[in-house]
TrEMBL record:
Its EC number is 2.3.1.1. Pfam families: Acetyltransf_7. One of its GO terms (molecular function) is acyltransferase activity. Keywords: Acyltransferase, Transferase. CDD domains: NAT_SF (cd04301). Signal peptide: none annotated. It comes from Sphingomonas japonica. The lineage of its organism: Bacteria, Pseudomonadati, Pseudomonadota, Alphaproteobacteria, Sphingomonadales. Residues 1-146 form the N-acetyltransferase domain. This is Amino-acid N-acetyltransferase.
Length: 146
């Protein structure tokens, strides 16, 4: 197996990301909106998975985490989350927030704490995912990066 590497996805180069998100039931119609950064993990066999960070300031949204079929359950999801956290921390982010309808346990195992949606800071509550793209039943979790 070749070494997996991370790269920033150039703006608009979402030909693999977009259908992967759609297939996983995740929002994909706002990728070109400002204030989003997406990262790709790949190796010699091609793309493995993606993760995004949305927003500005101390509180940002972890989003668009997806590992491609056939590449799951090999630690890639955890690597992608750790990469997003490292990039965020390097950019001065203090807390990462997320919504998930399916993999709350995956994030809990990686240090994310469940919280009440009503307690989310305005910068997070005002994101499209919070206000419209994700159903109200999605679990809200956050992690302190400081
Ligand atoms: C969630 C996801 C990114 C995990 O990727 P992965 O590469 O398989 O994850 P890893 O191999 O790093 O970690 C696997 C761990 O997550 C758990 N896990 C993976 N998929 C899971 C699922 N659907 N439900 C619950 N737990 C899951 C496994 O039990 C395993 O636990 P362990 O570390 O205790 O053994 C991947 O399943 C995926 O792309 N899912 C669809 C998109 C999605 O739901 N994204 C999250 C949106 S917020």
């Amino acid at each position: 197996m070749s070494k997996a590497i991370f790269a920033v996805l150039p703006l608009g180069m979402y030909d693999v990301l977009r259908p992967a998100l759609t297939a996983a039931g995740l929002p994909a119609d706002d990728l070109l909106e400002p204030g989003r950064s997406f990262f790709e993990l790949s190796d010699d066999d091609g793309p493995i998975g993606f993760v995004g960070v949305e927003g500005t300031g101390a509180d940002r949204l972890l989003r668009s985490l997806v590992v491609l079929p056939g590449r799951k359950r090999q630690g890639h999801g955890g690597l992608l989350v750790a990469h997003a956290e490292a990039v965020a921390r390097g950019g001065g982010v203090e807390r990462l927030h997320l919504l998930t309808t399916t993999v709350a346990d995956f994030f809990r195992a990686r240090g994310y704490q469940p919280a009440e949606r009503a307690s989310a800071p305005a910068a997070i509550a005002e994101t499209a995912q919070f206000s419209s793209l994700c159903p109200g039943s999605a679990a809200y979790l956050l992690k302190d990066l400081t």
